[in-house]
Write a structure and sequence with these properties.
By secondary structure, this protein is an alpha/beta fold. Helix content is 25%, strand content 19%. The chain has an 8-stranded parallel beta barrel. A two-stranded antiparallel sheet has the order 6-7.
Length: 207
């Protein structure tokens, strides 16, 4: 993106009545580059209604955490892999989404950078990952008791590991705008925010 540091928004687990309007506003004002739709309990019909309420020109900047089969039909630009959906579905011809993955350790980051993304029914990785998220970097805003996995005394090692990862790594967990300068110094390629965008929401482990 123009500023060289990705800003990613993530939705709270439950779909909000005003969610489409808020996502549209965040994407339209240019501050948020991509918005991840993370609704692990939502049905395909509920997701279709949400997506349909977001203007079509903005959907390329959305990423789906679930119901990946909707991506091609709705022009969704990104598909995100996680513990619920570790592999891509068979994709429609001509559909080449931006693929990302959840990681919760440096070892997972290194593995993801090496392995890429598998497609269901395929024996080999055919899609490189655009970026991965790594969490929790700081104490979570949206989940009480979800503490930082990378305390300050480990920042020197973290900076070295991120440099060696060979893939853009986006910080997740307790991220606020005031911490972006620190994240850039640590070598992160971007910041993903949930609690800072939806302060009254609650969430579980961010997959």
């Amino acid at each position: 993106m123009p500023h060289g540091f990705l800003i990613i928004g993530i939705t709270p687990p439950a779909i909000r009545p005003d969610e489409a309007q808020i996502i549209t506003a965040h994407l339209s004002d240019g501050y948020v580059d991509y918005f991840h739709l993370r609704h692990p309990s939502a049905t395909a019909d509920e997701m279709q209604r949400l997506i349909s309420a977001i203007p079509a020109p903005l959907r390329e900047r959305l990423s789906l955490h679930d119901h990946h089969h909707l991506g091609g039909a709705y022009g969704i630009g990104g598909l995100h892999l996680n513990s619920r959906n570790p592999r891509l579905p068979v994709l429609p011809e001509g559909y080449r989404p931006r693929v990302s993955r959840s990681c919760h350790s440096i070892a997972e980051v290194m593995d993801a950078a090496h392995a890429g993304a598998d497609t269901q029914g395929s024996e080999s990785a055919t899609y490189p990952l655009a970026y991965v998220t790594l969490s929790p970097i700081f104490d979570s805003i949206s989940k009480q008791g979800y503490g930082a996995a990378f305390p300050p005394e480990q920042y020197h090692r973290l900076r070295s590991d991120l440099t060696a990862a060979g893939i853009p790594v986006v910080a997740l967990g307790g991220v606020t705008p005031s911490r972006i300068d620190l994240l850039q110094k640590l070598g992160f390629a971007g910041a993903a925010m949930l609690g800072a965008l939806w302060p009254e929401s609650s969430c579980h482990r961010m997959d």
